[in-house]
Amino acid sequence: MKLLYFSLFVSLIDFINSVELTFELPDNDKQCYYQDIEKNRTAILEYQVITGGQYDVDVELLSPTKEILYKQIKSQFDSHQFTATQSGVYSACFSNEFSTFSHKLVYMDFSLSDSENPLPGTEEHATVLTQMESTAQEIHKSLNAILDYQTHHRLREAQGRKRAEDLNERVLWFSIIETSAILVIAITTVIVLRSFFTEKKPGHVHSNIRYQGFK
Asked: Is 64 exposed, middle or buried (0-12, 13-18, 19+ CB in 10 A)?
């Protein structure tokens, strides 16, 4: 049974051609993600800061020999495509070490190019593709483009929602402070005006008259 699970796990690894996730990057922190890429294989690194601070991070793409292939300082979003010059594990590192208090929410897609033919067996044709085969390939490319568009729209929606929530929270706290200030001013005004129109007690008046007559 364990051997069966291990075989399934290995077979799943073979199908994994990308690292796509949304992660939280705390302040003064650095996180790296890795992708095993074969030589002459094309890969794409795409990222976007969804929330946090000025929506910027430092990004580095390193080769298996720790050579810097791509670097950006305080970048909000970008996409970088490259071809592996050697087989090995490539790493994409995201740094928020320049920030002292704000953490970031970052989306990353570290994927390999789709080198598989959507129509197996067509590469063996001696003639050109039929109209149906060409249409099937176009549909395959269009579906991949739709997936990319959906991802970008989800990220923009999440970013807009977070900004709206932050703005709503700021308006709420400003309203609470403004309401508290109005109440304090109103109560203070009532107390001051009331002190102006408060009559003196009779006992104090008689005592003052007796004191003057005695003199």
From this structure: middle
Higher model confidence: residue 87 or residue 198? Answer: 87
Q: What is the pTM of this model?
A: 0.59
The pLDDT, as a whole number, for residue 151 is 74
Range list of β-strands (E), the chain: 18-25, 30-37, 42-51, 57-62, 68-75, 77-83, 88-95, 104-112
Q: How far apart (Å, rounded) are the C-alpha atoms in residues 33 and 6?
A: 23
Contact 46, 113 (CB under 8 A): no
Q: In this structure, which amino acid lies at residue 176?
A: I
Residues across the chain: 215
DSSP state of 123: G
DSSP state of 45: E
DSSP 69-93: EEEEEEESEEEEEEE-SS-EEEEEE
